[in-house]
Every structure is written in C-alpha cells, then in structure tokens.
Amino acid sequence: MAHPEVENAIKGFLLDQEKMAEVVDRMTKEMKMGLAKDTHPRAVIKCFVSYVQDLPTGKERGKCLALDLGGSNFRVLLVTLNGDGSADIQSKSYVFPSTLMTGTSDELFDFIAASLGNFCIENGLENEALPLGFTFSFPCQQKGINKGTLVAWTKGFNVPGVVGKNVVELLQQAIERRGEVRISIVAILNDTVGTLMSCAFHNRNCRIGLIVGTGTNACYVEKTVNAECFEHYQTSPKQSMIINCEWGAFGDNGVLDFVRTSYDRIVDKVTPNPGRQTFEKCISGMYMGEIVRLIVIEMMAKGVMFHGETSQQIQNRWSFQTAYLSDVESDPIGEYRHTNKVIREMGFLGNNEADKINLRRICEAVSSRSAKLCACGLVTLINKMNINEVVVGIDGSVYRYHPKYHDLLTMYMKQLLKPGVKFELTVSEDGSGKGAALVAATAAQSK
Ligand SMILES: Nc1ncnc2c1ncn2[C@@H]1O[C@H](COP(=O)(O)OP(=O)(O)OP(=O)(O)O)[C@@H](O)[C@H]1O
C-alpha cells in the first residue's frame, strides 16, 4: 500500500467512469464546433481539413522524399512505393539541435533544407526532381494539400515569425536559397495523417491515426459533407476527408478543468505555451515525467518519501523522464530492478521499499490517467463515425514503449464504447515515411 499522503496526492488522477463519460460528451461537442463552418473560428478542437481524401489501395507506385519534423527527432526519408502493397524506405536521422526550437525561422528552415540537401547528395538524388511530402506535426490550417499556415507552436517549440505563415513556402524558399536540389514540396501533412495512411496501406479498416509521443493528437476519416470548412464539402465527388483533430488543445477553454490537478496547473505555467494544449499536457510524453516529479518533490517536502535524502537532480525541472514511468511500471510487483536504476539516476542513495512502492503508485496514477483520457478521445471519434468496427493506427514512444499503455487503452475504451463495437489498436510503422509518401504520390499525380 502506498502512503496515505501519496494516495491523497494522486486522487485527482483517478478518473471514474462517470467523469470519463463526461469527457467524451464534452469532447463530442467541441469536435462538432471545430467541424462546423460558423463555429470553427472559436472552436478549440479545430478539426482541420487535411485535404487527404483517398485512403491507400496498396497499388500506389513511385519514388518520393519525405521529411519528418515533429518533436524530438528530425528525419529525411526516401520511399519507393512498389505498386504491390510494399514499400522500400531509406532514411537518415539528423541530430536536431535543441537551440533551433527557439531560434530564428531562417535557422530552422535552413537546417531542414541543408539536411535534405545532404541526404540527396549522399544518395545521388541531387538531379532528380522528386516530389516531397513534409510531415510537420504542429497545428496548421491548410488551404490545400501543399499549403499549411502554422497556427501555434507546441511541444516546446517557439520560433518567432512562423505563426501565421505558410510553412511550405518557408521551406521551399530555404531549399531554393541553397540551390542544391530540385525538390518540390507537393504535400504537407500532420503525423497523425501519415500514421493513418501508413496503417491503412496494410489494413483497409483503419479509420483513425493516433500519436502519443512528445505530444498527442489524432485524425480520423469523416464524411466530406460534414467537413464544412472544406470549400467543396457539398460538391466534392469524394466521400471522405481525413480530419486532423488537433485534439491536444481540448480543454483550453476550461472545459477540462474538472479533471485537471494542481500539478497540471504548475506544469502548464512553466511551459512556453501556458494555457494552451491542455489535453496534451495531461497525456503526452513531454509532460508525464514532470507531473510525477512534482508529486515526488511534494511528498519529499512532507517527509513522506526519500526521508532524510537530498537530491539536486530531482529538484531540476523536466529531470524525471517519461521513460522512467515505463521503467518503474515494467518491474513485476515486489521486484525493483528498473525502479532501483531510476532512483539511482535521480540521485537517491537509499534503498527503502516504501519509497519504491510510493513511486510506482504515482507513476501508475499518471500513466493510467493519460490512457483514460486518450481512450475518451478515441471513443469520441469512433462514436462520431458511428461505425461498429475500426482499426486505430498508433505511433509515438509512449504507446510503443510504456509496458501497459496498450492494455490500459484497450480496457478503458471497452468500458466506454457501446456494446458490440469492435476495435483493434495497432502500431503503425513509418507514418512519416510511407504515410507521407502515400500522400505525396497522390498529390504529385493530381498535379
Ligand atoms: N520508454 C519510454 N516510455 C514512455 N515514454 C517515452 C519512452 N521513451 C521516450 N518517451 C517519451 O516519448 C516522447 C518522444 O516521443 P516520440 O519518440 O514518439 O517522438 P516525437 O516524434 O518527438 O513525438 P511527436 O510525434 O509527438 O512529435 C518523449 O517525450 C519521451 O519522454
């Protein structure tokens, strides 16, 4: 049993069924506001039109480049779609200097263009006029498949002078300034869209793309007639439109305050975007470790945990990695191999079992709330589509590596879904490569 003070600290994270159902209700209303033309401007869940209307058939063919900028990693990829449902991918990850997250716009786009140039030269592609799909995982208002205006930076990025600009244009200009390659950006897409497309390439029932990584977001397949912000929503010959929900902003108008805790409010205040991305800050990898750290230091101040110890490390903001939650929760009950490693890395020397039990309880409370809220989001989308069978393609390190995330998500979704609705949650590989290429190939053809 965890200490009563620990139980008291985490009780705000233990959402019951009633609260979860309330989250679904509120989210459903916010989604409708995002989709409808008259309420879209003031909606917090924007439900952006992605301009991707065709799900893959598996027969796509062609060679495309892809770029992936979204959080902690930056990659350039060369994707060959073989026409038989398979794809070959070559990729290179570039170290993304964290100074670029808050540097100038020119520095950011020059870095991307230089990496692209380097990749093309290394692979002998400098003279090929290849189409490029740009996976850019920040909220963008699209006006077409290759026009995306940045609405706000998230996930710790804050580069002045980009919000309100078409990022495709900024990147294309940077590519041309360097003059190394003949690449044209034919599509910009959110990573959720790439994830959905890549999953749908193999699994025709895929209708949702979900990310639980540095941030969280989802997209789903809506009927075109409901995508009112699409100019041709009433006349388009295509029945479907992928909607990029940008659900991370859910709650920015206060409707999630009933599930937030004092710790969430502290985390929010120390981010570069206070008051924004409320739902994301309760769910995703960038924030979970920090929430745990705040509870631990409060318990230390109360003399409940790590009594008599001092650790500079635990006092440092963002020092408790979200990967530590996975470590701690991967130990079988009563065993502490990974927990011991985490405790040592956090600068503690003692070996008190009660501390380990308390730490585990805190980690479990934070990760299970994340999974509960994510389940609420997925159930909202499934109810909205009103379908009885669906596959969800998922990417992001939290989903991939947390030892219980998949099972928790499955359990909470079952609790919330109408009886008889079947779903499958599956890791979607290479969304920003294969997924981006699938979008780019279609966009290049229609060009
Ligand atoms: N083993 C792990 N368990 C849980 N979370 C982890 C683990 N390893 C890394 N993370 C968290 O996952 C996040 C990185 O996610 P990911 O690798 O999906 O990259 P990303 O592309 O930056 O994310 P996004 O797609 O949201 O932009 C980090 O915030 C990190 O804390």
UniProtKB/TrEMBL annotation:
Keyword Phosphoprotein present in the record's keywords: the answer is no
Its BP terms in the Gene Ontology are: glucose metabolic process; glycolytic process; intracellular glucose homeostasis
- Report the pathway entry: Carbohydrate metabolism; hexose metabolism; Carbohydrate degradation; glycolysis; D-glyceraldehyde 3-phosphate and glycerone phosphate from D-glucose: step 1/4
Q: Which SUPFAM superfamilies match?
A: Actin-like ATPase domain
Question: What would you give as a GO molecular function for this chain, any one?
Answer: mannokinase activity
User: Domain Hexokinase N-terminal spans what residues?
Assistant: 6-201
Question: Which controlled-vocabulary keywords does the entry list?
Answer: ATP-binding, Glycolysis, Kinase, Nucleotide-binding, Transferase
Where would I find the Hexokinase C-terminal domain in this sequence?
Answer: 207-441
The family note in this entry says: Belongs to the hexokinase family.
Role of this protein: Catalyzes the phosphorylation of various hexoses to hexose 6-phosphate.
Specify the protein name: Phosphotransferase
Originating organism: Drosophila ananassae
* Gene that encodes the chain: Dana\GF20727
